[in-house]
Amino acid sequence: MTAIGAKPAAGAQMEPVPMAIGLILTLIIIAAAFVLTGSSMAVALVGIIVGGLLIGFGVHFVPVGGAPAAMGQAPGIATGVAMLAAGAGLAGLFGGAWAAELGFAVAIAGGAIGGGLMMAITCMMVTLIYVYGMGIPCASGKVAKDPISGDTQTEFKSQGTEGHGLPFSSYVGGVIGGILGGAGGTLIYLELLHIYEDKLPVILNAGIPAEVKTVAVSLAGIFAIGMFLVNAVLAAYNITGTTEGPADPKFKRFPRDIVASALASAVCGIVAIMIVL
Amino acid sequence: MEHVVFGIGVTALAGTLAAVAGAAENTESDIGSQGDPNSQVQLAPQMGYIHRIFNKAIAGEPPAYGLWCALGAGLAMGFMLLQYNPVLAIILGSALTVLVQGVYATTAYLGRIASLSKFGQPVYVDILKSMTTVTMAHAFIAIFTTVAICYLMNAALGHPFPLPLLGLVWGIALGAAGSATGNPFYGKERQYQLQKFGAGVPIAASGNIVRYAEAGQRNSLDNGWFSAKLGGPASGICFGLIVFLELWRTVIFEGIGAGWGAIIVGILLILVFTIIDRYIEVWARKTYGPYAKPEEAKS
Amino acid sequence: MTVKVEVKAGGMPHNNIMALGLIGSLVCVYLTYLNQLGNTQVFSFFGALAVVFAIVWGSNAIKVLCSYGIGTGVPSAGMMSLGSGVIAMLLATRYGIAAPIVAVIVAGIIGAILGYIANNVLSMHIPVMIRSITELAIVGALTLMGFAALATGSFTLTPLMSGAAGFSSSFIGASIIAVAFMLGGIAIQHPFNATLGPNWEQDRMLMLAAECVFLSAVMMAIISFAFVGMMAAIISLIVTVVGWVYTYMQFIALSKRDAAAWLDAKPIVEPEVA
Q1: B238: closest CA among A191, A21, A127?
Q2: Is the dihedral of CA A2, C86, A105, A94 positive or negative?
Q3: Is residue C268 situated within a structural domain?
Q4: Are C87 and A237 inside 8 Å of each other by CB?
Q5: pLDDT surpasses 60 at C69
Q6: Phi, psi of A91 (to 5 degrees)
Q7: DSSP annotation of B289
Q8: ipTM of the complex
Q9: Mean pLDDT over residues A62-86, rounded?
Q10: Which of A256, B169, C68, C228 sits between 20 and 30 A of C165, alpha carbons compared?
Q11: Is-contact B38 B57, C-beta < 8 A?
């Protein structure tokens, strides 16, 4: 992403009142769904919210350094956090959608593994380029010791930088982020697909439900992508664009994003369900 | 059995196309100077370094390629609905998309440079003419191959998503893989060629990009020439592996254990890549050695 | 902690652009309804004009929002705009002739909640955050509705879901909406992203916004050959191509006006050392 050169705005503190309001609004929306549309829709909405939470939480794991990472000035992957997460999550959605006919659990797991595999390959190639292409070892700028491998970091940091490359905990974070994103995207897709396959034939007066299958797939797919992007961008705002993954102090901000993702997914989810009511 | 053999063939073809797509994508974005390294091209005039590098700030590579591939696939879909032959439809769709990409590239360059007039950075029209056409050529390869992969997934392997949706998904994935792998190589290794090898660029050096070539003045074609040697192929391997392994594990192992076979293979693959990554990291720590003693690195 | 980029004097105030964009966009979307009234499809091109109004407004809204540091790239705002807009737009298509109005209302509600989340729950504390995200969601919804009308001549659900050769060859069934999504998502962020800098000028950015939309609409008009009659598609194509050529020429002229110098095959001009 192109840097715009102004300081990020989001502070690190939690604000209890807006968070409480957010949670209450989420509960009201779920209750409204239950009253207005019945329990099956409310369960589907909860599924969508869980999917949104997985996406938002997953983005916090993805190590992204933004523009400085491209110069080896900061650790992480050199691209935008929302879009990298989208790349992994949508690759997962691809796998999950493909496995949709094999049952719920297989599809979710397929989506998760699809996202995780995409991130594993990408992160491995990033390390490979840093080490063999540029001769730069991995070093974190935020922590002295890698929490997973236990490697010390500071002495591998080159002068005048905040670290570079992907330390092992960032790599693991990337894979976890991909897994969560892929699972979340697939969950949203499956919940919506199920609803649309049920209801669309009625709305469109289609004699054979199979005829509208592509419409249901397409509609659920575009909604899953739209909600994925909304959740990923909100999570990116929460960590102000860059993070080193789970070892980063910014990771502790995730409770805020849990509330944010829950409310955002609830709003988008109920609207997506109302389309076929 | 025949079905599986057919699937393996399609998987291999898709993986190959993906490798070409990744390589072309990264070379295109480096010639255009798109993505994160472009922040330095943008910064240089402010620091007093007037340059002749392209400045194609369309968006990050993932959203930009999301658009190119979705648009290419959408146009191809439109032509197919008009009963065009799929191959012809994909070529026409990709060619039309490249026009959009080229126009976006020119407006990005003109817009960014015109907004930098305070620092005396002039618009070089010859840069616009010669770079844009080369990025368009590379973009065509990347878009055509990606849309072709999407068509294979939908028509040959039976993925439920319609073509434009697949284009959107794999376009974003292509941009993410290409920018993640290729950006550091262009950003550190080429733009800051004069900085010490084997170390990150000190923040104090930001904006001091290399502006002169072996002979004459460097333009972005020189950067494409450079990154086509490692950054491009590495991006190609990255995206090729992603597409190939994702399809391979599904096509071959989905029949085992009601779908769980593909998932177990996926987990094993992730573990393999984790081990490779850890090996590379430890190798680098041992071989390159610490830069400083922990106490001295505090500065 | 917010850093305000100095606002250029002399530009059109944002409120005026917003009013123009909202009303212009709604009027143009409704003009495509002449298709249904006259039982024809030749008025589809008004969909393109609706998107022009919407995105010109949206690009200025992004400028207002991104003048404060939002911590990540400008493109993310465009993605969120369309991501929330697509949900509102699809719900609105259920409501027949009221669809554009419903789209504005639903997108407004979604946008306001997302803005509240970003501003208060995520503690971004940007004064224009709630308003900007609301505006961007509405822009996203109107953009998609305009593209849908351009491609199919209609903005209601049933025509969007049923094509000539069954449901799978429709605007939604064939996922052409994904193309509209990305065309809008890039077109809305590109004008500001491509002209940001110390010498940013509003007229140049808004001209670029119109150019991006016409360019996208040319592509959508080509796709529309699959959905509307030959005559209607050719009219849409001519209107969008003419609009694109004009705005592109204008944008180049404005860039020439603002650029420090316009050189062809000249060496690097080193700044004079003070």
Answers
A1: A127
A2: negative
A3: no
A4: no
A5: yes
A6: -60, -35
A7: -
A8: 0.92
A9: 85
A10: B169
A11: yes
> Does residue C273 lie in a domain region?
no
Distance CA C233, CA C220 (A): 10
Distance between CA C65 and CA C115 in Å, rounded? 11
Whether the pLDDT of residue B70 is over 90: the answer is: yes
Q: Which residues contact C234 (CB under 8 A, 6 or more apart)?
A: none
Query: What is the reported pTM?
Result: 0.93
Q: Which residue has the higher pLDDT, A6 or C197?
A: C197
Contacts of A194 in chain B (CB under 8 A): none
List CB contacts (< 8 A) between B126 and chain C: 264-265
Task: Give the helix, strand, coil percentages of chain C, each rounded to 5.
Answer: 75, 0, 25
Contact C178 B120 (CB under 8 A): no
CB C210 within 8 A of CB B107: no
Considering only CB atoms, C76 lies closest to which of A19, A219, A236, namely A236
Chain A: touching chains (3 or more CB pairs < 8 Å)? B, C
**Min CA distance, B299 vs chain C (Å)?**
27
Chain C residue numbers with beta carbons less than 8 Å from the beta carbon of A225 are 83, 178, 181
The residue among A233, A53, B203 whose CA lies nearest residue C70 is A233
Residue of chain A with shortest Cα separation from B192: A71
Instruction: Show which of residues 176-215 on chain B sit within 8 Å of chain C, judged by CB atoms.
Output: 211
CA distances from A234 to A9, A53, A238, A267, C82 (A): 13, 11, 6, 14, 14
Give residue B25's identity as a one-letter amino acid code.
Answer: E
- Count residue pairs from A and C with Cβ separation < 8 A: 198
Query: pLDDT for A88-137, tens place per residue?
Result: 889 999 999 998 888 899 999 999 999 999 999 999 999 999 999 888 88
| Of C205, C248, C259, Cβ closest to residue B122 | C259
Q: How far is B157 from chain C (nearest CA, A)?
A: 18
Per-residue pLDDT for A274 more than 70? yes
d(CA A239, CA A82): 11
- Angle CA(B273)–CA(B274)–CA(B277) in degrees, nearest 5? 85
Residue of B nearest to A93 (CA): B169
> Which three-class secondary structure string do you get for A130-162?
HHHHCCCCCECCCCCECCCCCCECHHHCCCCCC
Q: For residues A183 and A105, give the distance between their C-alpha atoms in angstroms, rounded to a whole number.
A: 10
Task: State how far the Cα of B249 lies from the Cα of A105, in Å rounded to an integer.
Answer: 17
Give the up-direction half-sphere exposure of residue A23: CA atoms within 13 A in the CB hemisphere: 8
Q: Give the DSSP per-residue string, A5-30.
A: -S-----S---HHHHHHHHHHHHHHH
Residues from chain C contacting residue A15 (CB–CB below 8 Å): 120-121, 123
Tokens linked to C81: 């705009």
- Interfacial C residues in 25-84 facing A (CB < 8 Å): 66-77, 79-80, 82-84
Nearest to A237 among C5, C70, C175 (CB): C70
Q: Which two tokens stand for residue C216?
A: 């996208």
Classify residue A104 as exposed, middle or buried by CB count within 10 Å of its CB (0-12, 13-18, 19+). middle
Name the residue with tokens 């992508």.
A225
Cα–Cα distances in angstroms (integers) from residue A252 to residues A38, A162, A246, A255, in the given order: 37, 20, 9, 7
Neighbour-count burial of A96, counting CB atoms closer than 10 A to its CB (0-12 exposed, 13-18 middle, 19+ buried): buried
Number of domains in chain C: 1
pLDDT at B60: 82
Range of the domain at C27: 14-258
Q: Is residue C19 part of a domain?
A: yes
Contact C66 A4 (CB under 8 A): yes
Q: Compute CA B109 distance to the chain's CA centroid, rounded to the nearest angstrom.
A: 19
C192 shares contact with chain A (CB less than 8 Å)? no
Least confident residue range of B226-230, C5-9, C49-53: C5-9
Min distance A114 CA to chain B CA atoms (Å): 7
The two structure tokens encoding residue A253? 């901000």
